[in-house]
Design a protein that fits this description.
Elements lengths: L4 E5 L8 E5 L11 E6 L2 E9 L13 E2 L11 H13 L4 H7 L3 H4 L11 E4 L1 H4 L3 H7 L1 H10 L4 E2 H6 L4 H10 L2 E4 L19 H12 L5 E7 L5 H14 L3 E5 L6 H12 L3 E4 L5 H13 L4 E4 L11 E7 L16 H12 L2 E6 L4 H8 L4 E5 L10 E6 L5 E2 L2 E2 H12 L3 E5 L8 E3 L17 E3 L4 E3 L6 E3 L12 E3 L3 H11 L5 E4 L9 H11 L4 E4 L12 E6 L13 H13 L10 E6 L5 H9 L1 H15 L6 E9 L2 H16 L6 E13 L2 E10 L2 H15 L9 E6 L5
Parallel strand pairs: 2-5, 9-14, 9-15, 10-12, 10-13, 11-12, 13-14, 16-28, 19-26, 19-27, 25-26, 27-28
Antiparallel strand pairs: 1-2, 1-4, 3-4, 6-7, 6-8, 17-18, 20-24, 21-22, 22-23, 29-31, 29-32, 30-31
Helix pairs in contact: 1-13, 5-6, 9-10, 18-20, 19-20
């Protein structure tokens, strides 16, 4: 009797699946189930894709599988089909795609059943503690005691509130907390606080989504910062919970997750599942399990949460849909925003993409009717739109990047008891160490980039490969004293401390928040008003709400005005609008100062005079004339190696092979990447462009099948990026 066959996706960098014979005593596992299979000299955890009738593998070489790891399929049929589509669309091996969608413990073959996270409750001794007294010595321990005073909470919920496992261990060692059986109440059992009254714009947007019912519809919610987009989400989520359905909410950054989770928990209780990279393996598995079982009415997370299985799907929301964090830049290069729309269509549920600065692709989809445009241009509260002024840096003196008009404005707002936010998308002390005598600047030996001065740590650091060297002020070439040129967030921070020694100043960038817990601490102090001046990088433009901020300063708007990437203008406009939106979020009017050496640049003048929507229309018209997305579809074929010649040779052959296949696809290159040498490796690329997707993907598929057998391909590391964010 012929044994049943399994076609298994194994997490290896190969495009094909592998056939095995089923040797178990039970019926073969269904597609979506995990199996432990022999592979090469070892074993791998794979996922069954199908049960084929026949195989091309000779019977003598066909290996056997005798047991499944799951009693039922781990991946629902909808999610499995979506992942197979994604593997085809992004031209990535299916085994690695499926592995990426699973929590780490499940990838390693650990069981799903019984994977419950630890929960904690106060002991009698813990309830007897004075929280104020504890806070004087250990603020985080006091926070944990305050949270647990209302009842037992799982570790996942405490972590999202900023309570680290080490804090819980210290409390347990003191005998103030103990483990408790997890017993979170269902979301609908929570006593919701009084709801704010909706504005007419909020009501209109809410009614439009509700009118779509239970079926698929895509909405672009274009709402000004402070217009109340989150309240619209919460009302929609409440609708789904009342109907017994789940909602999936995606946010771009871990830093935004605690803020959103807090609002969700206040509104709906503990029926949440949180998925992001800051959780432990056990917590991620438990959240994934609760989403799959339908125990969690709300699933919230970052990019990879788009692969969460949903037992009772009802709604998908993508907040800050324009954010580049939704695009995976390494390995499986998928767009979580685009896959969220695909999943909504397959699940037949509405999807809401929201942003104050929508991507031009989403804006185009709304203008052409593919998405329905919902507009909320009015801020809530009496503050209204902030007053925006441009500071011409060619006419005003500056002190470490701080112009005289900006310093005067800072004095005014601080004197009124308000907070100030300063944005500079350049971390470190200074971007270059320069010798004025011989003209030499300190370069990274492994990258085509200058080393950044980090004066506080006494080192020079490459922000691309991570290389460091001691900071010395003497020039190695001529012996003269070198100077730090330009200003980064550290230098601005130092200058502010010198100018305002009595004002608490906070810094929000990757260096200042590298230690665990520091990000939450900086944000909490800013929201509470304890920090009077907050200076930071792109991390400030991520949807944070700082109620006391009335002045925003953009220290250098010129960084994106003349970028080589066709999206640089769009990103600068998004950044300016997002950062400016932090000013005057309540009833106090806000002010925004934008420092630039090019005050009459068309991008700035159009944006500031007419708003983001008019800017988007102008930018789309330019894109149409130039043939850039969304009026074309792109793919980048990248290659890198320790030497330049193998890279050029390989991509040259790719281009030659593509040229031999006539069609509508345009090919540019090979050309060096914007930074050709990075981390000691030379990088080049080919750009493929076509007005239709089908010819582009067909050509990529044929070329990739050929290139895997080329000798030149074994001398380089190569990849294909579909719908790249940077070219």
């Amino acid at each position: 009797m012929t044994r049943p066959l399994l076609r298994v996706a194994v997490p290896v960098p190969l495009p094909e699946c592998f056939d095995y014979a089923w040797a178990g005593d039970t019926p073969p596992p269904a597609p979506g189930s995990r199996v432990d299979v022999p592979f090469g000299r070892g074993r791998r955890v794979g996922v069954v894709l199908e049960l084929p009738e026949s195989t091309a593998v000779p019977s003598g070489k066909l290996k056997s599988v005798s047991a499944a790891l799951d009693p039922e399929p781990l991946l629902p049929s909808e999610l499995l089909a979506t992942l197979r589509w994604a593997a085809d669309y992004y031209h990535h091996p299916i085994g690695e795609v499926l592995s990426h969608a699973l929590p780490g413990l499940l990838r390693r073959g650990r069981p799903l059943a019984g994977a419950s996270a630890r929960s904690w409750r106060l002991t009698a001794e813990g309830r007897a503690q004075s929280i104020d007294a504890v806070r004087a010595k250990a603020a985080r321990q006091a926070d944990a005691l305050a949270l647990l005073a209302a009842g037992a909470l799982p570790s996942e919920a405490l972590r999202c509130a900023g309570i680290a496992p080490a804090t819980l261990k210290r409390l347990a060692d003191k005998g103030w907390i103990e483990e408790a059986a997890a017993a979170a109440p269902p979301p609908h059992s929570h006593s919701s606080p009084a709801l704010p009254e909706l504005t007419p714009e909020q009501r209109s947007a809410l009614d439009a989504v509700r009118a779509s019912g239970r079926t698929y519809a895509a909405f672009l919610l274009h709402g000004a910062t402070g217009s109340g987009k989150t309240e619209v989400f919460l009302r929609l989520v409440a609708d789904q919970l009342a109907a017994g359905r789940q909602s999936l909410l995606l946010v771009p950054e871990i830093g935004l997750t605690p803020q959103l989770v807090q609002r969700l928990r206040e509104r709906f209780g503990e029926g949440l599942a949180i998925l992001h990279s800051g959780l432990s393996d056990g917590e991620r598995r438990e959240a994934w399990r609760r989403a799959r079982a339908g125990d969690a009415g709300v699933v919230v997370g970052t990019r990879s949460a788009v692969f969460a299985p949903l037992a009772r799907p009802g709604l998908i929301v993508v907040d800050e849909e324009h954010d580049t964090s939704y695009k995976q830049q390494q390995g499986f290069r998928y767009s979580a925003r685009d896959l969220a729309v695909l999943r909504a269509r397959r699940l037949d549920v509405p999807v809401v993409l929201a942003s104050a600065t929508p991507s031009l692709e989403s804006f185009h989809n709304a203008v052409t009717g593919r998405y329905r445009l919902l507009e909320m241009p009015t801020r809530i509260g009496a503050a209204g739109e902030p007053c925006v002024r441009v500071v011409d840096m060619t006419r005003h003196p500056s002190r470490r990047g701080l112009s005289a008009p900006l310093l005067a404005a800072i004095d005014t707002h601080l004197g009124a008891g308000r907070q100030v936010l300063l944005f500079l998308n350049r971390r470190g002390f200074a971007p270059a160490l320069f010798c004025p005598s011989c003209g030499e600047a300190e370069q990274c030996r492994r990258c085509d980039a200058r080393l950044t001065v980090h004066a506080a740590s006494g080192e020079l650091r490459c922000h691309h490969c991570g290389a460091t060297k001691p900071l010395t002020w003497g020039c190695a070439a001529c012996g003269s004293e070198r100077i730090a040129v330009g200003a980064g967030t550290q230098r601005v921070d130092d200058e502010l401390n010198a100018l305002y020694p009595d004002q608490p100043i906070g810094r929000l960038d990757r260096d200042a928040t590298s230690r665990k817990g520091t990000l939450d601490s900086v944000l909490a102090r800013a929201r509470s008003g304890a920090t009077r001046i907050l200076v930071g990088t792109q991390m400030l433009a991520k949807g944070h709400d700082f109620p006391g901020v009335t002045l925003v300063g953009v220290l250098n708007a010129d960084q994106g005005l003349f970028g080589t990437d066709f999206r640089s203008g769009e990103r600068l406009a998004q950044t300016i609008v997002q950062v400016a939106g932090r000013a005057g979020r309540r009833d106090t009017p806000g002010e925004v100062l934008i420092q630039t050496h090019h005050p009459t640049h068309p991008l700035l003048t159009r944006l500031l005079a007419h708003g983001y929507a008019e800017f988007a229309k102008l930018a789309l018209a330019e894109r149409r004339r130039a043939g850039w997305p969304p009026f074309s579809h792109l793919a980048l074929w990248r290659a890198e190696a320790a030497r330049r010649p193998p890279v050029a040779e390989f991509l040259g052959r790719v281009r030659a092979s593509a040229a031999a296949k006539p069609g509508a696809v345009k090919i540019l290159g090979p050309a060096p990447e914007a930074m050709e040498r990075k981390g000691g490796r030379y990088r080049m690329q080919l750009l493929f462009s076509c007005t239709e997707r089908a010819p582009l993907h067909a050509l990529l598929g044929r070329l990739m099948a050929e290139a895997r057998d080329w000798r030149e391909g074994r001398r380089v590391r190569w990849s294909v990026d579909v719908d790249p964010l940077e070219v």
